[in-house]
Design goal:
- The protein is of the alpha/beta class.
- It has two domains: 209 residues, P-loop containing nucleotide triphosphate hydrolases (Rossmann fold); 78 residues, 2-Layer Sandwich (Alpha-Beta Plaits), CATH 3.30.70.100.
- Helix content is 34%, strand content 29%.
- A six-stranded mixed β-sheet has the order 6-7-8-3-9-10, with helices on both faces. A four-stranded antiparallel β-sheet has the order 2-1-4-5, with helices on one face. The chain has a four-stranded antiparallel β-sheet with strand order 12-13-11-14, covered by helices on one side.
- A hairpin with a 2-residue loop joins β4 and β5.
- The longest helix is centred in the middle third of the chain and has 16 residues.
- The radius of gyration is 23 Å and the shape is globular.
Length: 303
């Protein structure tokens, strides 16, 4: 059996009395895309920094690509790519000059190799543009090119799509799927729940703890204990107030122009009509919905 690309065992990091990462254990298999999701300050970045050997754990152990991250961090970094939250690019250089500079850091001077990387991330047409003139989405692609110019077997991406528009986010994930299809293992942190729906597995962090890690489908089956319904009613806020008082409702929230609930197992949604009618709220429709990873996270966070 092939060795996992990442192995973390009871990984812990303290800053004084503050516990940033609290006894985290998980594995990432070769070729997987694993999403690491949680709010800001939950410990995602600190975990990545320990896995890269940029930060020593207070306790616990980790290995990356078979190397001890505390003792063999140079080997880890030589074989891994890292894209941080703040893209490490020079705004007064062109796209080509940025990529050529970082390729040189890895000892790569082959012009063809650099051009192939530019093509890989879709920046061939922007090769001579100043980085300062690029949109955030194009700078994001350049940062990814810098992370993969040395053909790493493993990529660490720390909130790579933060601050970019939905179209750029979608295009960026298409690039990640292409890399995974070529055998690159990817650990990506994000606070966008919709993004990690497409990962092979998802780990959920909160206050330094890894609450759960599994496939999106398995997480939903285990941690969404009820049925999701989308309710269209008028007036909306009155409907929300009614649902918040019903004991059969595990969770209720506004979802744009309608209400979204998680109903306890075995409860007939027709009973909701009666509650609405008694309060003078008109119901247009009650439709079965799909559980999401946000539902999973809210359930785990309450626990």
């Amino acid at each position: 059996m092939e060795q996992p690309a990442i192995q973390a065992k009871d990984l812990t990091r303290r800053f004084g009395e503050f516990v940033a990462v609290d006894s985290v254990s998980f594995e990432v298999l070769a070729g997987e895309i694993v999403g690491y999701v949680g709010p800001n300050g939950s410990g995602k970045t600190t975990t990545i920094r320990m896995l890269l050997g940029l930060l020593r754990p207070t306790s616990g152990h980790a290995s990356v690509l078979g190397y001890d991250t505390a003792l063999q961090f140079e080997e880890v970094r030589a074989r891994s790519g890292y894209m941080s939250q703040k893209f490490a690019i020079y705004h007064d250089l062109t796209v080509w000059e940025n990529l050529r500079f970082y390729a040189g850091v890895y000892g790569i001077n082959d012009k063809r190799r650099i051009l192939e990387t530019l093509a890989h991330v879709g920046l061939t047409d922007q090769i001579n543009e100043l980085t300062s003139g690029l949109s955030t989405g194009w700078r994001q692609r350049l940062a990814l090119g810098i992370a993969i110019v040395h053909s790493p077997r493993l990529l660490f991406l720390d909130e790579p799509t933060s601050g970019v528009d939905p179209n750029a986010r979608r295009a960026f994930w298409d690039l990640l799927y292409n890399l995974a299809a070529e055998g690159v293992t990817i650990l990506v942190t994000t606070h966008y729940m919709d993004e990690v729906e497409y990962c092979n597995r998802v780990g959920m962090m909160r206050e330094g703890k890894l609450l759960a890690m599994d496939t999106p489908l398995a997480l939903k089956k285990q941690y969404v204990p009820g049925s999701v319904y989308e309710i269209y009613a008028t007036p909306l806020l009155s409907g929300l107030s009614i649902l918040e008082k019903l004991p059969a409702i595990q969770r209720v929230s506004l979802a744009g122009d309608h209400l979204r609930i998680i109903l306890q197992p075995g409860v007939d949604p027709a009973a909701l009509h009666q509650a609405f009618e008694a309060a003078g709220v008109a119901v247009q429709s009650i439709m079965l919905g799909e559980p999401g990873l946000e539902d999973v996270f809210v359930h785990l966070a309450k626990g």
